[in-house]
Design a protein that fits this description.
Shape: globular
Largest sheet: 8 strands, mixed
Helix content: 25-40%
Radius of gyration: 17 Å
Order of helices and strands: EHEHHEHEHEEHEEH
Mean pLDDT: 88
Strand order of the largest sheet: 1-2-3-4-5-6-8-7
Low-confidence stretches: none
């Protein structure tokens, strides 16, 4: 089973200097304010064939050979990136999250094995990631973006922490000092810690936006 892939946004984010892949899996996180507001529980993610593939990848993360299998794939991608003289980026979780400390440690081990690769992840597991950060366990090539819209939002320092916020429209986003990351995912790694995303899910879940405003 192939673990890494490129969705539409990853392909668009890749350019003549960078190539971006992502790892997605089924989501078992309980940190969303509204369960159905999670991107991994809406749209194409819930199509039977897609959901089955994501659930298979989730199960793969629980197996003892996950680190080895992921490293083998990254090694192949890195070899190709070097031939093209491009920087390799790996987004951890277009869907899914760090569901426990053991799983997070698996990814940190992978990151440490590839210091020349840049890894990044959006997460609602704020307290877990902050705990690891406090003890300087997070590798330098691993960037964390805290995703607002979770039950641990109060632990996000919006003035200091790199974080993302969902806006109802592009015009709403443009009125703020958040950088628009809808076109290129690599904006999440730019100089501004405030990452803006535009809601594109079912209208009935737009109350997630209102919750973030409180």
């Amino acid at each position: 089973m192939r673990l890494l892939s490129q969705n539409k946004k990853m392909r668009i984010s890749s350019n003549n200097k960078a190539i971006v892949y992502d790892f997605s899996c089924g989501c078992i996180s309980n940190k969303c304010l509204l369960g159905n507001s999670c991107y991994a529980k809406n749209g194409a993610y819930v199509w039977s064939n897609v959901k089955q593939a994501l659930d298979q990848k989730l199960e793969a993360t629980k197996k003892p050979d996950f680190i080895n299998n992921m490293c083998n794939e990254i090694q192949q991608k890195l070899k190709s990136a070097k031939k093209q003289q491009k920087q390799l980026y790996i987004r951890i979780h277009s869907s899914g999250d760090f569901y426990n400390a053991e799983y997070l440690l698996k990814w940190l081990t992978v990151c440490e094995k590839f210091p020349e690769v840049q890894f990044y992840a959006y997460t609602k597991e704020v307290l877990l990631l902050k705990l690891f950060d406090t003890y300087n366990i997070l590798p330098k090539n691993f960037t964390v973006i805290y995703s607002m819209g979770g039950i641990e939002d109060k632990h996000i320092d919006i003035d200091k922490d790199r974080h993302s916020k969902i806006f109802e429209s592009e015009s709403d986003l443009n009125k703020t000092d958040y950088f628009n990351a809808m076109e290129s995912d690599l904006v999440a790694l730019g100089p501004n810690n405030k990452i803006g995303l535009i809601f594109h899910g079912p209208k009935k879940y737009k109350n997630l936006i209102n919750i973030q405003k409180k």
